[in-house]
């Protein structure tokens, strides 16, 4: 073998930031190849999915609206993953946050007051936290793997949406459609820029990323999360309780997912519908990893993933790509990213084969 | 030197470069048949890299390895074993749940029927007096017995050269003597032995030749019997060795740390809990706890540091205050600091900078936190002070802890605790794998701290270290602590027996003769 992997003396910072771009490039190349092979115009598909949403200014508001829930959830997941707490159920916490926010909106239906939206936001965050508290409880009490519990709870939350929109919260004027009534004016997130679909969730998302970045880099809380993730034994030695950190990590990530849920239901949806679960919670996992678990990086990673969402919709209508295409691109992105991660700790070295070759040549010369 | 004797192993100009480091710089030496050859050097001097190349784990960038006069390329450990090179590593690779026989069978390259293997193993054991029951499960064996498995495994291949990497660091004095007996017998039969160690008196007792490496270069080849421990240590570190300065007859004060009937619960299958441990350490006193690894030292350290609080508040008292149930932070604020054995990953976070590692334990006592925010400049200033005071070789507070050599990281960790002026300091293996220069500095710092009135507990497997530093010592075995003995009255023979589990007067009834 002419090449060999060699452990680096220290993780490469260059590779840490270069591999996400490499993964993006490989995703485009592999995507173009795969879709060409199965009979689509692969190059056009890649262009539609990755380039067009960026070049057409008209699409930027779509990007902002799609990126903001990804930012909010992704930032929370970045915090949890830093502590090696694998909350895979952000989608469920996002849904429950949307539901508890909806509950406030329906309970205050017809009322006015600027307190309604803040109350919804608090309810949404509390809902997300409560739903994340379930895996936290089982993890700290019975050492049940949080990956399984948080993931499975997602499916339960989806059923909960189906139940409430068909049952107790069904719109009495909705002609039998499974959905709640449209929220009153006071329970709707106002548009930030008139004439666009950009709502106040967008600046909130940026603010969340900035605040979490500050907290993670400067505070004892952020330090604690990082120590627990990097060296659990050192964390105990430093006086940080592992169980308390698991709780904190899940509550922060669940609370932020709940915040994203309530902003989404009060913003773009303005009512609860069966189509509310849009996999933002799962896509945010890719966002968090693509961002190297850095809160500011999450902003850019969320935009990249928002591009694939918007571009995927475009490619459906123009190139006729199936709706699953954007999911395939997102999965490839995560796949290449994780595979590329080996380059952070290892490097590829050409093995000098002169001595071995010399011996072989000598051996061949003899008979 | 007899030029007629051909070397069994001869290295010429071996060079190995890692990014930023020249690990071996044109090293040349030879090992004759039947010679016990010591490879001596500080941590990071390049000993491990060199033997890894001899054992085929790495390839040299330049230079030549000759085996019985023939140039060879050792591409992997399999090739090394085929040539007749065996190696016993410092850290054993054994499956705890399997038997001795199964472990040996797994470790050899060729398939040998179990019955034949058993016969060959018992022949080897008889020949070298290595007593070991092939059917015992490894988890029930002592460290010395585990090492015998590795030795038997290596001897099965009838090696012509046996590499021993720091073999005595986990053995009792009696076990060391047994091991030396085996090695001398092997050498008498013509097997060459490359013996890596930093314990100079062992090298003097055992080896015919010593090759001293410093910073990747061969600095000296000598006959260890013609040298003193001090002269070899000075060649190793390339500078004069400072003497430990202390006043032996200083007055000890009031008890600062009182441990009474401290017991821990077994945390997992491999944990050895401590049972009814009681001792007291006075102001200015250095209290040593000797013992072979795996006899409850880790549980004791974590019970004292507060990582596993006790159920009774009175089990641990600092300056008269019961602290048995207090957590790590509460104990630290009362002045009880601890340094665990494992530096990277327990006492320090390898991926963090030194400044961030200073925050780990010093954040409250050095007042680095305001309103929940960490004052970076304060952390950097403190880390800088540790680096300067303790002569840590690092680029500064921003250096990544994992990039430091073991000795330097240990100096940093010890300095971090000592500069916080703890009233009680508990350290485990303070100089484990640390070079002679750094070890001397750490020893001096501990003595100075005691002289300033702190109570110090040193948990160590290195008996020499304890005898040199401590005022009082006790032996831990199977989670129980022996009575405390003034070091001046200690009988090494007795300590060795205690380490091996013979408790003499107290537990004579259930002691098993070795």
Strand order of the largest sheet of chain A: 1-2
The ordered H/E elements of chain A are EHHHHHHHHHHHHHHEH
Q: What does the average pLDDT of chain A come to?
A: 89
Main pleated-sheet profile of chain A: 2 strands, antiparallel
Mean pLDDT of chain B: 86
What is the CATH homology-level superfamily of the largest domain in chain B?
Answer: P-loop containing nucleotide triphosphate hydrolases
**At CATH's second level, what is the architecture of the largest domain in chain B?**
3-Layer(aba) Sandwich
CATH C-level class of the largest domain in chain B is Alpha Beta
Shape type of chain A: globular
Q: What distance lies between the first and last C-alpha atoms of chain B, to the nearest angstrom? A: 42 Å
Total strand segments of chain A:
2
Instruction: Work out the helix count of chain A.
Output: 15
Q: Tell me which protein chains meet in the greatest interface and how many residues each side has.
A: A-B, 25 and 39 residues
């Amino acid at each position: 073998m002419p090449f060999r992997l060699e452990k680096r003396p220290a993780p490469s910072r260059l590779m840490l930031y270069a591999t996400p771009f490499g993964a993006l490039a490989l995703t485009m190349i592999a995507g173009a190849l795969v879709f060409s092979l199965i009979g689509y115009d692969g190059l056009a598909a890649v262009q539609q999915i990755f380039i067009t949403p960026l070049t057409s200014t008209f699409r930027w508001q779509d990007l902002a609206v799609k990126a903001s829930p990804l930012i909010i959830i992704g930032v929370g997941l970045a915090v949890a993953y830093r502590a090696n707490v694998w909350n895979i159920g952000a989608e469920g916490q996002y849904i429950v946050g949307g539901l508890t926010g909806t509950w406030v909106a329906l309970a205050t239906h017809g009322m006015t007051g600027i307190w309604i939206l803040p109350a919804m936001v608090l309810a949404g965050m509390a809902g997300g936290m409560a739903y994340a508290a379930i895996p936290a409880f089982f993890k700290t009490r019975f050492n049940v793997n949080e990956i399984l519990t948080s993931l499975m709870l997602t499916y339960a939350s989806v059923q909960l949406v189906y139940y409430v929109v068909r049952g107790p919260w069904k719109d009495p004027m909705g002609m039998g459609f499974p959905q709640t009534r449209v929220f009153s004016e006071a329970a709707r997130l106002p548009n930030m820029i008139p004439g666009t679909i950009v709502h106040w969730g967008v600046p909130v998302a940026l603010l969340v990323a900035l605040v979490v970045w500050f907290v993670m880099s400067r505070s004892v809380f952020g330090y604690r999360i990082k120590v627990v993730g990097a060296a659990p034994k050192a964390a105990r030695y430093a006086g940080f309780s592992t169980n308390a950190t698991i709780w904190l990590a899940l509550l922060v990530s669940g609370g932020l997912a709940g915040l994203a849920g309530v902003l989404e239901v009060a913003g773009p949806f303005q009512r609860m519908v069966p189509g509310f679960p849009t996999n933002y919670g799962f896509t945010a996992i890719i966002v968090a990893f693509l961002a190297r678990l850095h809160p500011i990086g999450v902003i850019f990673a969320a935009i990249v993933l928002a591009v694939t969402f918007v571009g995927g919709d475009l490619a459906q209508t123009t190139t006729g790509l199936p709706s699953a295409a954007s999911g395939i691109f997102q999965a490839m992105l995560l796949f290449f990213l994780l595979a590329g991660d080996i380059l952070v700790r290892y490097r590829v070295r050409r093995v000098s084969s002169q001595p071995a070759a010399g011996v072989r040549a000598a051996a061949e010369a003899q008979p | 030197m007899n030029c007629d004797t051909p070397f069994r192993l001869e290295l010429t100009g071996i060079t190995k470069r890692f990014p930023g480091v020249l690990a071996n710089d044109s090293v040349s030496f030879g090992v004759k048949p039947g010679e016990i050859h010591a490879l001596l050097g500080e941590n990071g001097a390049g000993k491990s890299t060199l033997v890894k190349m001899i054992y085929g784990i790495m390839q040299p960038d330049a230079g030549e390895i000759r085996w019985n006069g023939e140039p060879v390329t050792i591409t992997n450990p399999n090739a090394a074993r085929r040539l007749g090179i065996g190696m016993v590593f410092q850290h054993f690779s054994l499956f705890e749940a399997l038997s001795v026989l199964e472990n040996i069978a797994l470790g050899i390259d060729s398939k040998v029927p179990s019955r034949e293997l058993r016969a060959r193993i018992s022949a080897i054991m008889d020949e070298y007096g290595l007593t070991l029951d092939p059917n015992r499960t490894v988890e029930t064996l002592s460290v010395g017995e585990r090492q015998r498995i590795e030795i038997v495994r290596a001897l099965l291949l009838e090696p012509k050269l046996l590499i021993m990497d720091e073999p005595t660091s986990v053995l009792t004095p009696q076990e060391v003597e047994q091991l030396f007996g085996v090695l001398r017998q092997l050498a008498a039969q013509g097997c060459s032995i490359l013996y890596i160690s930093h314990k100079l008196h062992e090298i003097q007792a055992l080896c015919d030749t010593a090759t001293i490496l410093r910073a990747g270069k061969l600095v000296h080849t000598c006959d260890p019997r013609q040298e003193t421990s001090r002269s070899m240590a000075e060649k190793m570190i390339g500078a004069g060795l400072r003497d430990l300065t202390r006043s032996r007859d200083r007055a000890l004060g009031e008890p600062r740390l009182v441990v009474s009937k401290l017991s821990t619960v077994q945390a997992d299958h491999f944990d050895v809990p401590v049972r009814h441990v009681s001792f007291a350490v006075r102001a200015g006193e250095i209290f040593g706890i000797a013992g072979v690894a795996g006899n409850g030292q880790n549980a004791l350290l974590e019970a004292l540091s507060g990582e596993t609080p006790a159920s009774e508040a009175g089990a641990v008292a600092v300056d008269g205050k019961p602290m048995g149930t207090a957590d790590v932070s509460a104990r630290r604020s009362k002045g009880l600091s601890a340094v665990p054995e494992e530096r990277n990953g327990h006492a320090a976070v390898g991926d963090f900078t030194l400044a961030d590692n200073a925050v780990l334990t010093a954040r409250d006592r050095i007042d680095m936190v305001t309103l929940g925010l960490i004052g970076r400049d304060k952390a950097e200033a403190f880390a800088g002070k540790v680096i300067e005071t303790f002569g840590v070789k690092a680029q500064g507070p921003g250096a990544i802890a994992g990039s430091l050599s073991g000795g330097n990281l240990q100096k940093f960790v010890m300095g971090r605790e000592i500069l916080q002026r703890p009233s009680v300091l508990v350290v485990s293996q303070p100089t484990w794998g640390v070079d002679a220069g750094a070890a001397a500095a750490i020893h001096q710092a501990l003595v100075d701290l005691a002289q300033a009135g702190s109570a110090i507990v040193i948990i160590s497997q290195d008996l020499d270290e304890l005898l040199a530093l401590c005022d009082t010592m006790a032996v831990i075995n199977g989670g129980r602590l022996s009575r405390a003995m003034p070091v001046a009255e200690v009988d090494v023979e007795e300590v060795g027996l205690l380490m091996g589990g013979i408790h003499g007067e107290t537990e004579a009834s259930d002691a098993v003769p070795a």
